From TrEMBL:
Gene3D superfamilies: 3.90.660.10, FAD/NAD(P)-binding domain, Winged helix-like DNA-binding domain superfamily/Winged helix DNA-binding domain. Residues 102-203 form the SWIRM domain. The keyword Transcription regulation does not apply. This is SWIRM domain-containing protein. Residues 24-37 have a biased composition (Polar residues). Residues 1-74 are annotated as: Disordered. PANTHER family: FLAVIN MONOAMINE OXIDASE, LYSINE-SPECIFIC HISTONE DEMETHYLASE 1 HOMOLOG 1. Keywords: Chromatin regulator.
Length: 785
């Protein structure tokens, strides 16, 4: 018998059963209690990542039959009100396509919509990238067709690298400029030619345009950091990733569980691909040859006594729940129109309508309604009392379409493949990020890492905690958004059993509770038997229960879960064995996250996601992660896409800086050339010295410009010109001295003149040059007064 382990230092990975490190005590410092259960039960703690087998489970299937009651969508869905932002769709007056070409264009447009492009307009990023010469009109319409075609062509075969020539093949030559614009945009923003296929990985080992670029320090090796790093490397940047844990992945963590001849891979963090249409993680799965398992919609619910919920009551309460949400929707519409800044808790509004319309008044109905509320708290990782009524579902219009899916053997397969060959320094907890006009310095583990730019991908919980010092401080606008936006909690109990006693016909089932305050405690179970490789059940803990869960011992947690399961299955004559291993997460106590994922809290709005995404320090420090993605927050693909977004932003900034530097160099060259032309006809020349006088004055004390020519084989051009500002009298005295050496001594020691390059001349010197130049162009303007 092994004692359970209750740790909270880095709870998103699992401690090995024989770990005797001092961290393996609970937060209060008590010794871990023993248990009558035989299996090892543990809290999660981050150490080195256990390898997860690549073998695909034998019973994985992508389109299973769905026997039993009618399908009920009880997954993490928030799609209720989408009226604030219109969901993209084809224009209503569009006629049905007749020709094959028109049908193909429709298909390509649908693919573009699935990845987030609007139907007949440009994205903000496309406008910023100047993909067309003017907004609107025929050029834009043609560009959209070309862009959609290139995107669809690569999506049809994501294993190959789509070249510019292949993109141009089906487009008339007259549109080559549009092909170039669309191809460059899609490539640089990570819409095509990304991922993990051999052809794509090989092509991305070098800069796509042959240009070597700046150094970037990336803080965090989660999905956003890994994706950004791979994209930046392909753009010619040099990157280094600093990760506080001893593994990559961040909030994506797969734990290998085993015992008594069974083995399974449990996703303790991000686990479900929420919508497969257009999802970049779906692209990775295709490239890696991973079959997707659709999460089936059948989700039976069970009362506290283990009996199944009456189907008619279940349906009636589900309809009533949706009507409550509709009424809240109408309320917020009128409130936003009348008083722009009013916001109240979503839970308060729902409870008020529930009382007014007398919804769910008997015991079973009340438990059912509370189950739906717990499911909503799961979707948002928050209590209903903390959610903004006005904006809690602002991301619904952008939700990825298609099935919700599991990945066989866990999402860490993505992480390990993305982390391959990247320069990641583990165990480097970042304490400080300092930034200025010359670049950034990141301090971690007693080391200093310097770069031209930095990308901060830490979770919102870490920013809220202030774990990282920013010097100078972040702008108040960003600090306010960090505090306003919500960051909540979801926890899990993963249990590996000796056999699958719950059956293979369902992927989810739910449990109701009489106490509203514990409605989120083990309210939903996910079966991973079809994808994990073994009989694995995961119980979810949401809302207020998720917070209290972290104060409960893992032994007590597993006992409660087993009591629920035995209450459901024992009356059916099904024996529920003890698990061979169980793991409890503690995301709230994890010092690398301090929570699970973001939500729109009261007083916040979708704008705060955009503010979090803004760079600071004149584009020196950038930010990525799910909490910076307004369209896809709280999702793995949201983190992925934010990494792509910031890589594109960094490329844009680097190009702008390079262009500005080139302009400065060109400007300096032009200035030097212009000055050299003035010295072709100096007022006085002697030895290596020549001088120009102020054309507006004959005064012996007026300013004059002296130029000294230095020659040497070590100089690139064979010579070097330096300049100094003197009086006309000093110039004449200098000309009367024999030898350049003596003249230099007189210049420095007696006159105190310091020679400088062209850029080092003072404003007085620049003004003198302007007067001399004007006099050369217009001799009459130089007449002495």
């Amino acid at each position: 018998m092994e004692p359970p382990q209750d740790t909270s230092e880095n709870p998103n990975d699992v401690v090995s059963d024989d770990d005797s490190s001092p961290e393996n005590t609970n937060p209060e410092g008590h010794e871990n209690p023993t248990t009558t259960l035989d299996p090892p039960i543990s809290d999660t703690q981050d150490e080195s990542s256990d390898p997860v087998p690549d073998e695909q489970p034998q019973n994985t299937h992508s389109n299973p039959a769905e026997p039993g009651p009618p399908a009920r969508r009880r997954r993490r869905r928030k799609r209720f009100f989408t009226e604030l932002i219109a969901n993209p769709s084809f224009p209503k007056n569009r006629r049905p396509s007749v020709s094959g070409l028109a049908k193909e264009m429709d298909t390509e447009a649908l693919i573009a919509i699935s990845v987030g492009f609007p139907v007949d307009s440009l994205t903000e990023e496309e406008i910023e990238a100047n993909v067309v010469s003017r907004i609107g009109g025929r050029e834009q319409a043609n560009y959209i067709v070309v862009r959609n075609h290139i995107l669809a062509r690569w999506r049809s075969n994501v294993s190959d690298w789509l070249t510019r020539e292949h993109a141009l093949a089906a487009i008339r030559a007259e549109h080559k400029n549009l092909v170039d614009a669309a191809y460059n945009f899609l490539l640089e923003h990570g819409y095509i030619n990304f991922g993990l296929s051999p052809a794509v990985k090989e092509a991305k080992l070098k800069s796509f345009d042959g240009v070597e670029r700046a150094n970037v320090v990336i803080v965090g090796a989660g999905l956003s950091g890994l994706v950004a790093a791979r994209q930046l490397v392909s753009m010619g940047f040099k990157v280094v990733i600093l990760e506080g844990r001893m593994r990559p992945g961040g909030r994506v963590k797969t734990r290998k569980m085993k015992g008594d001849g069974v083995v399974a891979a449990a996703d303790l963090g991000g686990s479900i691909l929420t919508g497969i249409n257009g999802n970049p993680l779906g692209v990775l799965a295709r490239q890696m040859g991973l079959p997707l398992h659709k999460v089936r919609d059948i989700c039976p619910l069970y009362l506290p006594d283990g009996k199944a919920v009456d189907a008619d009551v279940d349906s009636r309460i589900e309809v009533s729940f949706n009507k409550l949400l509709d009424r809240v929707c109408k309320l917020r519409h009128s409130m936003i129109e009348e008083v722009k800044s009013v916001d109240v808790p979503l839970g308060t509004a729902l409870e008020a309508f529930r009382n007014v319309y007398k919804v769910a008044e008997d015991s079973q109905e009340s438990m059912l309604l509370n189950w739906h509320l717990a499911n909503l708290e799961y979707a948002n990782a928050s209590l209903m009392a903390n959610l903004s009524m006005a904006y809690w579902d602002q991301d619904d219009p952008y939700e990825m379409g298609g099935d919700h899916c599991f990945i066989p053997a866990g999402n860490e397969r993505f992480v390990r493949a993305l982390a391959e060959d990247l320069p990641i320094f583990y165990g480097r907890t970042v304490q400080s990020i300092r930034y200025g006009i010359d670049g950034v310095k990141v301090y971690a583990g007693g080391q200093e890492f310097c770069g031209n730019m930095a990308l901060c991908t830490v979770p919102l919980g870490v920013l809220k905690k202030g774990s990282i010092e920013f010097v100078p401080e972040l702008p108040q606008r960003k600090k306010d958004a960090i505090q306003r936006l919500g960051f909540g909690l979801l926890n899990k109990v993963a249990m590996l059993f000796p056999n699958n006693f719950w059956g293979g016909e369902i992927d989810t089932f739910g449990h109701l509770t009489e106490d509203p305050s514990t409605r989120g405690e083990f309210f939903l179970f996910y079966s991973y038997s079809s994808t994990s490789g073994g009989p694995l059940l995961v119980a979810l803990v949401a809302g207020d229960a998720a917070i209290k869960f972290e104060l409960m011992s893992p032994v007590e947690s597993v006992k409660r879960v087993l009591n629920i399961l035995r209450g459901i299955f024992h009356p059916k004559g099904i024996v529920v064995p003890d698990p061979v291993e169980a793991v409890c997460t503690r995301w709230g106590k994890d010092r690398f996250t301090y929570g699970s994922y973001s939500h729109v809290a009261i007083g916040s709005s979708e704008d705060d996601y955009d503010i979090l995404a803004e760079s600071v320090g004149d584009d020196r420090v950038f930010f990525a992660g799910e909490a910076t993605n307004k369209q896809y927050p709280a999702t793995m693909h949201g983190a992925f896409l934010s990494g792509m977004r910031e890589a594109a932003n960094m490329l844009r900034v680097e190009r702008r800086r390079s262009l500005n530097l080139s302009d400065k160099v060109s400007n300096n060259i032009e200035k030097c050339d212009s000055l050299n032309k003035l010295f072709e006809n100096p007022d006085l020349t002697f030895g290596s010295f020549s001088a120009l006088y102020d054309p507006h004055s004959d005064d012996i004390g007026s300013h004059a410009l002296v130029r000294v020519k230095f020659q040497g084989y070590k100089l690139d051009s064979g010579h070097l010109f330096l300049y100094g500002l003197m009086t006309k009298k000093q110039i004449i005295q200098l000309s009367e001295v024999n030898g350049d050496g003596n003249r230099m001594n007189l210049l420095h020691r007696n006159f105190g003149v310091k020679l400088v390059g062209r850029k080092g001349l003072s404003d007085i010197g620049e003004s003198l040059i302007s007067r001399i130049k004007a006099a050369k162009i217009n001799p009459n303007a130089g007449d002495k007064s």
